[in-house]
Amino acid sequence: MSIQYRVAFGKNDEAVDGADDAAVVVSIAAADAGLAPTVAFMQGKLKNTGPTGPLLQALRDGSAAAAITRLASRP
C-alpha cells in the first residue's frame, strides 16, 4: 500500500511526497515535524486518512520519520 506524506508550512504551502492516488495520506504541520512521528501521532498532530495499518508499519520501520524529516527540511 502506498503512502503520501504532506508537511504543511502554511496555508496553500506544503511539501508533498508520494503518489496522488495513495491509499494513505499522512499530514503534519512543519512546526510539529520535529517531534518523533509516533509521539506526534499519539498527540493528534500527525493525521492520516485511509487505513491505519500501513501508517503504523511506516512508523515502526522508520520510513515515516525519514520522509517527514526530508520534507520538513526543504531548502
Quick one: how many beta strands? 4
Largest beta sheet, briefly? 4 strands, mixed
The side-by-side strand order for the widest beta sheet comes to 2-1-3-4
Architecture per CATH nomenclature, i.e. the level-2 architecture: 2-Layer Sandwich
Label the structural class: alpha+beta
Mean pLDDT: 95
Element-by-element helix/strand order: EEEHEHH
**Which consecutive residue ranges, at least 5 long each, have pLDDT under 50?**
none
Outline: globular
Number of helical runs? 3
State the share of residues found in helices, binned by percent. 25-40%
Structural domain tally: 1
> C-alpha Rg, in Å?
11 Å
The CATH homologous superfamily: SCP2 sterol-binding domain
CATH class: Alpha Beta
Tell me what you see in this structure:
- By secondary structure, this protein is of the alpha+beta class.
- It has a single domain (3-72), classed as SCP2 sterol-binding domain (Nonspecific Lipid-transfer Protein, Chain A, 2-Layer Sandwich), CATH 3.30.1050.10.
- It has helices spanning 37-42, 52-61, 63-72; strands at 3-10, 13-17, 24-29, 47-49.
- The chain has a 4-stranded mixed β-sheet with strand order 2-1-3-4, covered by helices on one side.
- A hairpin with a 2-residue loop joins strand 1 and strand 2.
- The longest helix has 10 residues, at 52-61.
- It is globular and about 30 Å long.
